[in-house]
């Protein structure tokens, strides 16, 4: 069986993860939650790959003082580089990149939309099941500071998840 890094040109995977926000005010209102998305990557040189992904997080919470319902959506669209180290059917990787983050919040006070740029770091390990199919255990950290209204917030945080994909 050839390894992912040496035999493939690229890969596509679907992902699910649990997101823990880094900002305490965010945690107080929405807590953590599940997100899902997809990633595509292409080998650009030896063990170095370019990746691009998109994820979707939707949460409901309560406003701090009035306890009325508030809804949140965050859509990060990321891109960057990953470097792989292969050990048999395992491929360990680390990566860094940037992201365009879309933030939407809706409640009785009003609707707020904002977008901004931030950074993303990631680590993980791919488990090669067949020549073309793999599982991915990963962790991400993102940071994106923005001011959607009269307050500043970091909408990034820590993510841990699993993906399944195929190489081509």
Q: What is this entry, summarized?
A:
It contains 2 helices and 10 strands; from the N terminus they run αβαβββββββββ. By secondary structure, the chain is mostly beta strands.
- The helix-and-strand class reads mainly beta
Q: Could you give the order of the helices and strands?
A: HEHEEEEEEEEE
Order of neighbouring strands in the sheet with most strands: 1-2-3-4-5-6-7-10
Number of domains: 1
CATH hierarchy, class: Mainly Beta
Question: What's the total helix number?
Answer: 2
Helix content: under 10%
Uncertain spans, ≥5 residues at pLDDT below 50?
A: 1-6
Largest sheet: 8 strands, antiparallel, barrel
Shape: elongated
Mean pLDDT: 91
Distance between the termini: 14 Å
Number of strands: 10
Q: Give the DSSP E fraction (strand runs of 2 or more residues).
A: over 45%
In the CATH classification, which architecture applies? Beta Barrel
CATH fold name = Porin
In angstroms, what is the radius of gyration? 18 Å
Account of the 3D structure:
This protein has 168 residues and is mainly beta. The protein has a single domain (4-167), classed as Porin, CATH 2.40.160. The chain has 2 helices and 10 strands. The chain has helices at residues 4-7, 24-30; strands spanning 10-21, 33-45, 48-62, 69-87, 90-107, 110-128, 133-143, 145-146, 153-154, 157-167. Strands 1-2-3-4-5-6-7-10 form an 8-stranded antiparallel beta barrel. It has a two-stranded antiparallel sheet with strand order 8-9. The radius of gyration is 18 Å and the shape is elongated. The protein starts with a helix and ends with a strand.
């Amino acid at each position: 069986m050839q390894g992912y890094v040496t035999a493939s040109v690229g890969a596509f995977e679907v992902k699910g993860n649990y997101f823990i926000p880094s900002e305490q005010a965010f945690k107080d209102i929405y807590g953590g939650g599940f997100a899902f998305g997809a990633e595509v990557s292409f080998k650009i040189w030896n063990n170095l790959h370019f990746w691009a992904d998109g994820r979707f997080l939707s949460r409901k919470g309560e406003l701090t003082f009035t306890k009325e319902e508030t809804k949140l959506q965050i859509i990060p669209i990321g891109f960057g580089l990953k470097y792989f180290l292969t050990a048999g059917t395992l491929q360990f990787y680390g990566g860094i990149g940037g992201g365009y983050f879309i933030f939407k919040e809706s409640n009785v006070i009003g609707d707020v939309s904002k977008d901004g740029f931030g950074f993303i770091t990631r680590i993980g390990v791919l488990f090669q099941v067949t020549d073309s199919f793999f599982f991915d255990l990963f962790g991400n950290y993102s940071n994106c500071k923005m001011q959607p209204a009269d307050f500043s917030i970091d909408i990034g945080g820590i993510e841990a998840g699993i993906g399944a994909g195929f190489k081509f």
